Amino acid sequence: MFLTRYISDVFKGIKSLLTGMKLTGWYALHHRKEKITQQYPDNKDTLVLPERFRGEVVMIHDENNEHACTGCTACELACPNATIKIVTKFDVQADGKKKKAIDKFVYHLELCTFCNLCIEACPTDAIKMAQTFEHSVTDRTDLTKILNFPGSKIREGIE
Amino acid sequence: MYRETEILKQPGVGDPDVFGDMVINIGPQHPSTHGVLHLVITLNGETIKKVEPHLGYIHRSIEKMCESLSFRQFIYVTSKMDYLSSHINNHGCCLCVEKGMQIEVPPRAQVIRVLMDELTRLASHQLWWGAGAMDIGALTPFFYAFREREMINDIMEETCGTRLTMNYMVPGGVMTDVHPNFQKRVHQFIDHFKKKIDEYDELLTGNVIFQHRMKGVGYLSKEDAISYGCTGPTARGSGVNCDIRKLFPYEVYNKLQFDEIIETGCDCFARYLVRMKEMRESLSIVEQLIDNIPEGDIQAKTKAVLKLPKGEYYSRVETARGEFGVYIVSEGGTTPYRIKFRSPGYSNLSALDHMARGGKIGDLVAIMAMIDLVIPDIDR
Amino acid sequence: MPSLENIANSIHQWLNNNFSGPWPMLIEFAIVGVCIISLFALLGLVLIMMERKVSAWMQLRLGPNRVGPVGMFQTAADTLKLIVKEGMTPDGADKFLFNVAPFIVMIIAMVIMAPLAFAKNLQIWDVNIGILFVAAVSSVSVIGVLMAGWASNNKYSLLGAMRSGAQIVSYELSAGFAILVIVILTGDLKISSIVEAQANGWWIFKGHLPVWIAFIIFMIAVTAETNRAPFDLAEAESELTAGFHTEYSGMKFALFFLAEYANIFVVSAIGATLFLGGWQPLHFGTDTGFNRVMDYIPSSIWFMGKTFFLIFVIMWFRWTFPRLRIDQLLNLEWKYLLPISMFNILLATLMAIMGWYFK
Asked: What is the pLDDT of residues B305-362, one digit of tens each?
C-alpha cells in the first residue's frame, strides 16, 4: 500500500543517513589517533624513503673518489629522451696507450622521466637512483648536472 | 579545431533554438572533469539537450613519439597515458612485444605481474570512489579513499621505486625482484582494507541521497553499450560480458578463482556497484596469489636490442576502465613502424552524449564520475 | 560569580542615576549595538575556525595549526586578507543593488538576534510575538539573495540566486510548522515564556513523538534555509557556478560569508531555545543533588553549549552527505517534509488538547 511504502521509505532513508553520520562522527571524535597527515617540513629529519625510490640519477663514488663508469654509453642509448650525454676523452696511460675515459657525464634532470632504463642498461653498476625528491631550483641551468665528481677517475679493473 | 564541428554537425538535431536554449562550456579547467575536458553543453533551462566533448587539450602525440623509440623504450610512455592503471598499461605493451618475439615469461614474473595489476586496479578504484564522491558533493570519502591508496602506493614505492607512473615491466618479465617486505606489507594491507571496504558501503552505498542521485541516471542499454564500444565497468553495468580476464585470459588469470561482475541496472548505480564488487574481487585475487609466488627467474633472457619480426601484433588487457589494446605494426627494424593504442576512455566518453540527454547538469556530473574518465588516456 | 543579568541591571541603575531624559535609553541602545556587532565578529571568527577544525577531524587531518597556538588566529588572518582585497564591481551591474545586497543580509541576521534569550533575563527585546517575529524577519533575507543575483549582471549568478530563493522560501514552510508545534504546546509566542515552560524539563523530553518529529524536520529545514550542504546546490564548487555571490570579492564577500555563519548561529539558537530548553539546565526529576550541580553552571553556558551542539550537528551534515539535485531538494520538501509536518501539527494539537504529554 502506498502509505506503508511511504513510511518505510522515510525510515530507511533516515536510518541510512544516521549510519553514515555515525562513521564520520566516530572519526571526528577519534581524530587524534586516526589522522593520516604528516607535518612535512618539520619531519624532514625522520623521513625515511625506500632504498629503491627513484629520486635522481647519481654516480656511485667510493671513498677514493673513484667511480665505475667506463664511458660505454649504454645508458645514453637506453634513455628514451636524451637525458644523458656522455662526453669522453682519451686518457694517456702509464704505458703510453690511449684509453677512452669519461670526461663529463651530463645529466639533464629537467628531461628525466625516472623510468630506470639507464640503471638497467649499465653493465658495471656505475649509476643508481638516489632518494632525493626536492628538486625545485630557481634557475633552470641548475638542473643540468655533471654526475662524475671533479678529479675522480675510474677504478682499476673495471672493463 | 572548431571547423570540424561545423562540418560534422547535422542541422536540426540538438541545435540551439531561436530562444530558450543556452550554450555553455564546462571548461577545460574545472574541478570535476578529471583532467582537461572541454564540454559544450546545450541547455534548455536545466535540461541538457546535447553534450559535445572537445578533446585534444592534453594531446602529446604519444603514438608518433613511439615511432622513434625502441621496443624497450616505448613502454614507459603508456604509464603516463592512463596514469591510474600504469602497471596494467605497461603490461599490455609487454604482452604485445612478447607475442611478436615469442618470448616465454617465467612463472614467477607472471604472478608478480598479476599481483601488481590487481593492486593497481584496487588503487584506481579507490581513487575513483573518492573523486566520484567529491564530485557528487560528499567531501570526506576522498580522504578515506586516499588513506587506503597511500598504503598501496607505499607498497609500490618499496618494490618499484615510484608511486604513480611505474615503469616496472620489461618484455620478458619484471625489472627487479619484489622487495623482501612485499608479502608482509600486502598482508597488512589486505587485513586493513577488508574492514574499510565495509565502511565505504556504510558511508556512501546505502546513503539515500546518494542512491537518489545515481538511480535512473545515465541509462545505457546493452545494445547501445555494445554499439558505442564501451568496455569495462561502464559496459558491465549494462549487462555486457566483456571482462578480458575471462574472455581472453593472459598470464595466470585462467588459473584463478574470481567472478566477472555483471549488473543489469544500466544506470549509474549499477556501474557503481560493479566497481565496488570489483574491488572485492581484486582483493580476493591478491589474497589467492600473495602466498603462492613461485620461485624462479624474474626475467626471461632476451637480446639487448629487440627487433620484432615484420608483421602486425595486437594484445589486449583489462585496465580499471576497460579494454586497453596495443597494436604494433613492425617492419622488422628496431623501432616500430606504427603503434596504435586503443584507449578505453575514448569509447566510454563517446557514450556520454547519449547518456546525458534529457538529464540535468547534476546528472552530467554524476555520469562523468561513474564512467571514470581519465582525460590523458583519451587524448594520448 | 556576577551573572550577566546582574551586570546588565547594575549598568541600567548607574545610567538612570547619572543621566536624565532620553539619554539612558540612547546610551543603552549604543551599548547593545556595540555588543551585537562584536558578538557577530567574534562568532564569525569562532564559527569559521570550528568549521575548519571539525571538517579536518572528520577527514583524518588536522585543521589549521600554523597561525597561533592551535591555529587560533587563522580566521583573523583570513579576515585581514579579505579586507585588503580589491572589491570589484562588474561592468553592467546595477550599482546600488549590488552594494546594498550584502548589507541587507547582514542586517537581517543581526535583527533576528533581538528576541533571543542568551541567559536568564538577558534578552534584548522580549517582544510578545517573539517567535513569530523571528520567522517573519528571516523571510526578508531572500530579498538580499535575489538582489545579489540580479545585480551581478551574470546569468549564472541569476540562476544560482533563483534556485537559492526557491529553496529558502520552500523550506521556511516546514520550519514554520515545526516551530508551530512548540507554540501549540506552550500556548504562547513569547520567547521568555517558552523557556519558562521548560523549567521542569526540556520539550524534547516532555513532549514525545510530535516534538521528536518536529525536531528532525526543523533540523533538516534550517540546514536547507541557510544554504548548507547537503542543500548547497546554489554555491556548489563542482557544479556550474558559485551561485549568487560569484561576482563579489573583498569585504562584500566577507559580509556574505559572515552572514551565512551568523544565520547558522541564529537558527541553532532558536532550535536550542524551542526544543532543548534555552538557558534551562538539565534536571533529572527529583534528584536534588544532581540538579544542584547542574544549577551551578551559569545559564549562558547552558545556552551556548546547546547552541554549539546544534551547530556541530549542522556541520556534521555538511561533511557526511552528498549534495541533492535541485528537483530532488524541492521534491523532498513538498512531497515529504510538508505532509509529515502537517500531520504532525494535527498530532500535536490532539496531544495538547487531551494533555497527553509529561507536564
From this structure: 888 889 899 999 999 999 999 999 998 888 899 999 999 989 999 899 888 888 888 8
Asked if A17's CB is within 8 angstroms of C57's CB, the reply is: no
Q: B306 has which bridge partners?
A: none
B245 vs B239: CA distance, rounded Å = 16
Strands A153-154 and A66-67: parallel
| Out of A22, A80, A114, closest to residue B73 by CB | A80
CA of B83 vs chain C CAs: smallest distance (Å): 23
Reference B275, options B234, B218, B221, B330; nearest CA is B234
Contact B374, B340 (CB under 8 A): no
List of E strands, chain B: 21-26, 38-44, 47-54, 169-170, 173-174, 311-318, 323-330, 338-342
Cβ contacts below 8 Å, chain A against chain C, sum to 41
Per-residue pLDDT for C280 more than 50?
Answer: yes
Length of chain B: 380
Label each residue of B250-305 as H, E or C: CCCHHHCCCCCCCCCCCCHHHHHHHHHHHHHHHHHHHHHHHCCCCCCCCECCCCCC
Residue B186: pLDDT over 70:
yes
Strand A153-154 with A144-146, pairing? unpaired
Per DSSP, helices labelled H in chain A are 2-29, 31-34, 74-78, 117-121
- Candidates B72, B179, B203; nearest CB to A117: B72
Pick from B103, B146, B136: nearest CA to B365: B136
Question: Looking at CA atoms only, how far is residue B121 from chain A in angstroms?
Answer: 21
What cell numbers appear for A5 in the block? 511504502
Strand-pairing partners, residue B173, are: B170, B299
Note the pLDDT tens digit of each residue in B26-58.
878 776 667 788 888 888 877 888 888 888 888
Alpha-carbon C311 to chain mean position: 9
The C-alpha of C58 sits at a distance from chain A's nearest C-alpha, in angstroms, of 4
pLDDT in tens, A7-35: 898 889 899 888 888 888 888 888 888 77
C-alpha to C-alpha distance for C333 and C220, rounded to whole angstroms = 10
- Check CB contact of B339 with chain A, cutoff 8 Å: no
Ramachandran region, residue C355 (left: φ > 0; alpha: ψ -120 to 50; beta: rest) = left
Per-residue model confidence (pLDDT) at position B12: 52
Tell me the domains of chain B and their CATH numbers.
4-54 (no CATH), 62-379 (1.10.645.10)
The pLDDT of residue B315: 92
Kindly state whether C52 is in contact with chain B, defined as any CB-CB distance less than 8 angstroms. no
Q: How far apart are CA C229 and CA C146, in angstroms?
A: 20
List chains touching A (3+ CB pairs under 8 A): B, C
Q: Give the ipTM of the model, two decimals please.
A: 0.84
d(CA C321, CA C48): 20
